[in-house]
Amino acid sequence: MPQTIPTGCGSLDERLKGGLRRGNIVLVYGEAETGKTTLAIQCSVNCARMGYKTIFIDCDNTFFARRMAQIASGDFDELATQIILMRPQNFNQQAFVIDRLAEYVGEKVGLIVVDTITGYYREELSGNMTRTLKLNRELNRQMACLAQITRAKNVASLIVSQVRSVVFENADVTMQPVAMRVMKFWADTAISIWPTTESDKIRVNVEMRSKKRVKPTLLKIAEKGLQDYRK
Ligand SMILES: Nc1ncnc2c1ncn2[C@@H]1O[C@H](COP(=O)(O)OP(=O)(O)OP(=O)(O)O)[C@@H](O)[C@H]1O
Ligand SMILES: [Mg+2]
Questions:
Q1: Which pTM value belongs to this model?
Q2: Are 211 and 218 in contact (CB under 8 A)?
Q3: Which residue among 102, 136, 149, 168 sits deepest, i.e. has the most Cβ atoms within 10 Å of its Cβ?
């Protein structure tokens, strides 16, 4: 059984020491249109190529067969049978799906994707403190459940989160994953994706739990998915 699922981008796989590791949760966060879903589909396709299934929990309704076909090239029909797509329509259904995940994760499953885990959560936020605490607790519970399955079933998990901008006292602005403390608590590794001045070029940063600094890499969003950027 292979221990890692490659993303297919050499420079990123090198930083991830081979790719998405079984038993680990990788958090992917970044602004809109930076290639998060593309990366998730690409990893699912690579997992399928290795003969393992992916459970893809598509909370954003953005897993398009057409996009997968571009990434899978000629092997769409064969690879598509390896991807089990789940489409919760609200935060309650998302909880329901995650709670029952253990029933679906058999030996042939190599990867679990949640894209995005914070979409419905964010829709439910209302500014009311008690409600926010309740939603945070629920999100934390879902992440705990995913972490438990990831370890117990020895699968890789790729969890996508949206970002929110945070303004510091000195007026610096940065992007953080929504519900950062919850998300980073459970993640073994985080991949942050940053836009550049060119729309098809992204800067990708790998953040290790050990806080070891890793040099960012540049990737290109192309028809066949994400690839190493070459000038
Ligand atoms: N066939 C293609 N060839 C090149 N680029 C493409 C192709 N299909 C989509 N893209 C680009 O990929 C980007 C969107 O990628 P993706 O949907 O993975 O982003 P995302 O980070 O998941 O966005 P969101 O936050 O909205 O979910 C867009 O910039 C789009 O132009
Ligand atoms: Mg997306």
A1: 0.97
A2: no
A3: 149
* CATH number at 4-228: 3.40.50.300
Residue ranges of domains in the chain: 4-228
CA-to-CA distance for 143 and 134, rounded, in angstroms? 14
Give CA–CA dist 84/104, Å, rounded.
9
Our mutation pick for probing the ligand 1 site, out of 37, 59, 62, 204, counting the most ligand atoms within 8 A of Cβ, is: 37
Ligand closest to the CA atom of residue 196: 1
Q: Going residue by residue through the chain (231 aa), what tens digit of pLDDT does each one get?
A: 789 999 999 999 999 999 999 999 999 999 999 999 999 999 999 999 999 999 999 999 999 999 999 999 989 999 999 999 999 999 999 999 999 999 999 999 999 999 999 999 999 998 899 999 999 999 999 999 999 999 999 999 999 999 999 998 888 888 999 999 999 999 999 999 999 999 999 999 999 988 888 999 999 999 999 999 987
Q: Is the CB of 34 under 6 A from ligand 1?
A: yes
Which of 144, 153, 175, 188 is closest to 27 using CA atoms?
188
Pocket test for ligand 1, best of 31, 34, 118 (most atoms within 8 A of CB): 34
Q: Which atom of ligand 1 is nearest to the CA of 31?
A: 25
